[in-house]
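User: I've been going back and forth on whether these two constructs are worth ordering. Before I decide, could you fold them both?

Assistant: Sure. I'll take them in the order you sent them. The first construct and its structure tokens:
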Amino acid sequence: MKPVVLLIGRLPHVIGDVARQLQHLPIEWLGAHDQDEVIRQLDAEPRIGCVIMGAGLDDATRGALVGVIAARRPDVCMHLKDRASGPEGLVPFVERVVRHEVLGQMQPG
């Protein structure tokens, strides 16, 4: 069974683009772009092992989502992308996180 990663971003099509570009990774991708969707995904999928949040959301929204995720799923690690690398930095950021945090736990060395 593939590990599950929840991608959160401001625009739904961006999340889909990231998942398509990283389809070579053995990951089941879920996406959300607002708080209601995040809650639905967290409640519906107990296998989510990692949440990655893009930088397009404003600080208040990102902070609120961190609180929601931490309260509902304290077992899930969260990674927030920096803003300095811009939109083009999202795919490399997600790939680094997944390779090191998710797949690195499954594959020794």
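The second construct, handled the same way:
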Amino acid sequence: MPNFATWLTIGFILIIIGFVIIFVGAIYSSTQQSNQKTEVGGVIMIGPIPIIFGSSWKAVTIAIILAIVLMALAIVFMIIGKGMVIK
């Protein structure tokens, strides 16, 4: 089983990869000239209470599904991490 430092490194690398993907996507989308409709949606979690917003039902539905998946992953990681002890 990997130790705490390994999980910390993996988490840090995933955060950096996420920032790079967002940065590259922003640059890519700003260079394209198109007349596409933009939809946005998001979820803000304040404890167990979700605040859901969006510009269309499709964007809100996608945000809800992603929030459920992320909450499930968080629960799985908490269960996995429960056996790890920091020494």
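Notes on the second construct follow. The radius of gyration is 17 Å. The CA atoms of residues 41 and 61 lie 8 Å apart.
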